[in-house]
Design brief:
The structure holds two protein chains of two kinds. By secondary structure, chain A is mainly α. Helix content of chain A is 78%, strand content 1%. Chain A has two domains: 151 residues, no CATH class; 235 residues, MetI-like fold (Orthogonal Bundle), CATH 1.10.3720.10. In chain A, strands 1-2 form a two-stranded antiparallel ribbon. In chain A, α1 runs parallel beside α5, α4 crosses α5 and α8 crosses α11. By secondary structure, chain B is of the alpha/beta class. Chain B has a domain of 177 residues: Rossmann fold. Chain B has a six-stranded mixed β-sheet, with helices on both faces. In chain B, strands 2-1-4-5 form a four-stranded antiparallel β-sheet, covered by helices on one side. In chain B, β7, α8 and β8 form a beta-alpha-beta unit. The longest helix of chain B is centred in the middle third of the chain and has 14 residues.
C-alpha cells in the first residue's frame, strides 16, 4: 500500500472519529450534564491523538523505507549477482526502481529488468508494513483519546497542550535545518582541509583555484588563499555599500519620522520599501550595464586605473539596495523613542534638529546599530549584484575603481557547471561558504543582542 | 505675620501689577473640534496659578498653548492673542525656541532623558550657550539641583542615568532641568499625577519655594493640591474658563454655580 494512500485514509478516519466524538459529547450536554469543555474540543482532542502520531510514524517510515527496500533487493539472488563496481551498480538499482515504479518501461542494463519485480515486491512488502505500523498507532491513539472524553474530561486543556507541542515542533524545524546546513558544510569543509592547509586557506593572499586535472598537465597547482576574497567582500559589502546606505538610510528615516507630513510619509515610505522588493538580479543589470561603465569613464577621466567591472559599481548599487533595511530599522527605533523625550527637549527650547541629534538619535542608537549590522550581514552574503558587476579577479587592492571579487562570486564560479565533488577546487566552495556563514551568523547574533537590549530600555 | 498672609494682603491690595502672561480671547482647535473657547486670563509673576477642572475640559491644552507646545501637534490651531511681557508669542519676531527657553514646562509623566543626571541638567544650558566653562556648568547643575531639592540625594552619583531615579526624584530632576535654562515662567502639567503622596508633598513644597522667582502655572486634578499650592485658581469646564480669581475666594465663595458644583464634588 502506498504510504500516501495510508496517510489519506488515516486523516479521513480521524476526522470521522472527531466528528462522532463531538456529536456524542453534545449528546451528553443535551442529556443535562455539565461539560468542562465544549464538544468541539473533545473532537479536536480525538483527532490530534489519533492522526498526529500515526502521520509522524508514516513520515519517518517514508524516509527509512528506501534504504530497507534497497537492502532487500541486494539480499535477493538477483541482487547478489550485481557487479561490485559502485557506479554501475547504482545505475542498475536506480533503473530497477524506475521500472518497478512504472516511470520507465525497459532498462539499458539487462539486470535491471530482472531486478524490477524484486524491487516492486520489496516495496509492496515494506509499504504494507509501514501502513500497518501507522494504523496501529492510529488505533492506540484513538482508543486512548476516546476513552478519556466525557463530561468531566478537560479536553480544552489537552488541546492546549497539543497546541504547544505543535508550536515547539514548528520552531524546531527551523533550528534543525540551520544545524543541518552547518553540519553538511562542515563535513565538506573537513574534506577540503585534508587537501589544503587551513592556515594557507585563511591567511594566504593568493587565490587561483584551478588545479591540474591530469598529472602531466601544465599549469597551475592551485592556490587557495582566501584573504583577497574576504577583503573584496568586506570592501564592497561592509565599506562601500555602507558608506552609501548608512547616511542615506538614516537621513531618510529621520525625514520620514520627524519632518514629513503624515500624508507625505504615507506615500514615501512604501516607495522606499519598493527598493527592498526589487529582485537582486535586476540590481545586477543596473550595476553592470549602467553604473559600471559610468564609473569606468569617471576613473579614466580622473586618471585612476579603472576596470569596466569595479568594486565601486557593485558597492554603490548594493548600498542603494540596502537603504530600506537601514531606514526601516532606524525608522522603527526612532519611532519607539517616547514622544515625552521629544516634548521634554522641545520644551527646553531646543530646535527640532538639536532634539534629533542630542536626544532622539542617542536614544535610538542601539536599534539603529542593530539595523546596520543586519544590513551588513545581508550585504556580505549578497550574490547577484557582485556576480554581475564586481568581476572575478582576486585582487587585493583598495582602489575602488579596480575589479575585485567576493566570496559569493567565487562560490558561484566554483560550483557552476559539471563538477567533480572530490577536488580541492569544488570543496573550497564549501569552506568559503562555512566561513561566510560564521561571519554573518556572528553579525546577526550581535545585532539581535543589541536590538534586544534597546527594546528593554523603555520598558 | 507669616508668608501666606503677606501674599493674601498683597493680592487684596489689587496693585496694578503688569501680568507676566496674558491671554485674550484664545480659541484652540484640534481639526474641527474646538478644545478651548474664548479664554482670557492673566498670569502674574510672583504667584502660582492653578488650572482645575474635570478631565477633558481643556486645561492641559490651554497650558500647552502658553509655550506653543501645541505647534508640535499637526492638527492643532490656535487663535487669539497670547502675550509674554507684552510681546505677542505668535508674532513673527518671536522665536518659538526662545519662547520655550523663557517659558519652561514640566510634564505629567517624568520624562528625564536617558542620559546621566548631570547631562540631563546640562542639556538646556548647553543648547542655549549659557556657560563658557566646565566650572560654570558645574555651578549651574549644582544650583539647579539645589533649587529642585535634589542635590543632597544625587550629588554623589551625578553620572548615573536619570532614568534610574525614583519617580518623584525623576520629576524633581525634570523641574531642575527646566530651572537650569533660567526661565521666567514654569508650566506644570499635572506634575504629581504619577507620584505617590510623599513624592507629591515634596513637589508641592518645591513649588512653594520656587514661587516668587518664577511665575508658575500648574494644571491639577487634585483640588486640595490647588488649594494648597496656588494663590490664584482658574476653573475650566468644557473648554470654557468658568471662573478665575483668588484661590481662597474660588474655594470658599465661588460666584458661579458650576464652580460651586465642581469643588463640592457634585461632578467631575
Amino acid at each position: 500500500m502506498s504510504l500516501f494512500v495510508a496517510a489519506m485514509i488515516i486523516l479521513v478516519l480521524a476526522a470521522a472519529a472527531a466528528f462522532t466524538t463531538r456529536t456524542r459529547v453534545s449528546g451528553l450536554r443535551r442529556g443535562g450534564e455539565r461539560l468542562h469543555s465544549l464538544p468541539g474540543y473533545h473532537g479536536i482532542y480525538v483527532f490530534l491523538w489519533s492522526a498526529v502520531p500515526a502521520l509522524l510514524l508514516l513520515a519517518i517510515w517514508a524516509i527509512v523505507q528506501g534504504g530497507l527496500v534497497e537492502q532487500a533487493v541486494l539480499a535477493s539472488p538477483a541482487g547478489q549477482a550485481l557487479p561490485d563496481f559502485d557506479l554501475q551498480r547504482d545505475a542498475i538499482l536506480s533503473e530497477a526502481r524506475a521500472i518497478a515504479g512504472g516511470y520507465q518501461s525497459s532498462g539499458f542494463y539487462p539486470q535491471s529488468e530482472a531486478l524490477a519485480p524484486v524491487h516492486a515486491a520489496a516495496r509492496a512488502h515494506y509499504g504494507w508494513m509501514g501502513a500497518g505500523v501507522a494504523f496501529t498507532a492510529f488505533l492506540v491513539g484513538l482508543l486512548f483519546a476516546m476513552r478519556r472524553t466525557g463530561a468531566a474530561f478537560r479536553a480544552r486543556t489537552g488541546v492546549e497542550r497539543w497546541m504547544m507541542v505543535v508550536l515547539v515542533g514548528a520552531s524546531m524545524i527551523a533550528i534543525f535545518t540551520t544545524l543541518g546546513i552547518v553540519l553538511s558544510l562542515m563535513f565538506e569543509t573537513l574534506l577540503f582541509f585534508q587537501k589544503v592547509n587551513p592556515v594557507e586557506f585563511l591567511f594566504g593572499t593568493q587565490w587561483s583555484p584551478q588545479t591540474a586535472i591530469r598529472a602531466d598537465q601544465a599549469g597551475s597547482s592551485g592556490a587557495f588563499g582566501s584573504v583577497p576574497l574576504f577583503w573584496g567582500t568586506i570592501f564592497i559589502g561592509a565599506i562601500i555599500a555602507m558608506i552609501v546606505a548608512i547616511p542615506l538610510g538614516l537621513m531618510s528615516a529621520i525625514f520620514l519620522t520627524q519632518y514629513a507630513h503624515a500624508r507625505v510619509r504615507a506615500w514615501l515610505k512604501p516607495i522606499l520599501e519598493i527598493l527592498a522588493g526589487v529582485p537582486t538580479v535586476v540590481y545586477g543589470y543596473f550595476a553592470a550595464l549602467t553604473v559600471a561603465p559610468a564609473i569606468r569613464d569617471l576613473g579614466v577621466t580622473l586618471g585612476i586605473p579603472a576596470s569596466s567591472e569595479s568594486a565601486l559599481a557593485a558597492g554603490l548599487v548594493m548600498g542603494i539596495m540596502i537603504i530600506p533595511f537601514v531606514s526601516s530599522m532606524a525608522d522603527d527605533s526612532i519611532a519607539a523613542v517616547p514622544q515625552a523625550m521629544n516634548d521634554g527637549s522641545l520644551a527646553l527650547g531646543a530646535t527640532r534638529s538639536e532634539t534629533i541629534k542630542k536626544v532622539i538619535f542617542p536614544a535610538a542608537l542601539p536599534g539603529i546599530v542593530g539595523g546596520i549590522l543586519l544590513a551588513v550581514s545581508r550585504a556580505i552574503g549578497e550574490t547577484m549584484i557582485v556576480v554581475m558587476a564586481a568581476g572575478l579577479a582576486a585582487n587585493l587592492t583598495a582602489n575602488p575603481f579596480a575589479s575585485v571579487t567576493t566570496v559569493t562570486v567565487q562560490i558561484v564560479q566554483l560550483l557552476t557547471g559539471d563538477q567533480e565533488f572530490d577536488s580541492a577546487k569544488t570543496l573550497a566552495a564549501f569552506a568559503l561558504g562555512l566561513v561566510l556563514f560564521f561571519i554573518t551568523l556572528l553579525l546577526n547574533l550581535y545585532a539581535l543582542r543589541v536590538v534586544r537590549k534597546y527594546r528593554e530600555a523603555y520598558e | 505675620m507669616n508668608d501666606t498672609t503677606t501674599a493674601t494682603a498683597a493680592d487684596t491690595s489689587a496693585a496694578p501689577a503688569l501680568p507676566k502672561m496674558r491671554a485674550e480671547n484664545v480659541n484652540v482647535f484640534y481639526g474641527d473640534k474646538q478644545a478651548i473657547k474664548d479664554v482670557s486670563i492673566e498670569i502674574f509673576d510672583d504667584k502660582v496659578t492653578a488650572f482645575i477642572g474635570p478631565s477633558g475640559c481643556g486645561k492641559s491644552t490651554f497650558l500647552r498653548t502658553l509655550n506653543r507646545m501645541n505647534d508640535t501637534i499637526p492638527s492643532a490651531r490656535v487663535e487669539g492673542l497670547i502675550e509674554l511681557d507684552g510681546e505677542d508669542i505668535h508674532a513673527p519676531a518671536m522665536d518659538v525656541v526662545q519662547l520655550r527657553a523663557r517659558v519652561g514646562m514640566v510634564f505629567q509623566k517624568p520624562n528625564p532623558f536617558p542620559k546621566s543626571i548631570y547631562e540631563n541638567i546640562a542639556y538646556g544650558p548647553r543648547i542655549h550657550g549659557l556657560t563658557s566653562s566646565k566650572s560654570d556648568m558645574d555651578a549651574i547643575v549644582e544650583s539647579s539641583l539645589r533649587r529642585a531639592g535634589l542635590w543632597d540625594e544625587v550629588k554623589d552619583r551625578l553620572d548615573e542615568s536619570g532614568t534610574a531615579l525614583s519617580g518623584g526624584q525623576q520629576q524633581r530632576l525634570c523641574i531642575a532641568r527646566a530651572i537650569a535654562v533660567d526661565p521666567e515662567v514654569i508650566l506644570m502639567d499635572e506634575p504629581c499625577s504619577a507620584l505617590d503622596p510623599i513624592a507629591t508633598a515634596k513637589i508641592e513644597e518645591l513649588i512653594h519655594e520656587l514661587r516668587g522667582r518664577y511665575a508658575i502655572a500648574i494644571v491639577t486634578h487634585n483640588m486640595q493640591q490647588a488649594a494648597r499650592v496656588s494663590q490664584r485658581t482658574a476653573f475650566f469646564h468644557l473648554g470654557n474658563l468658568v471662573e478665575y480669581g483668588e484661590t481662597g475666594q474660588i474655594f470658599t465663595n465661588p460666584t458661579q454655580q458650576r464652580t460651586q458644583d465642581y469643588i463640592t464634588g457634585r461632578y467631575g
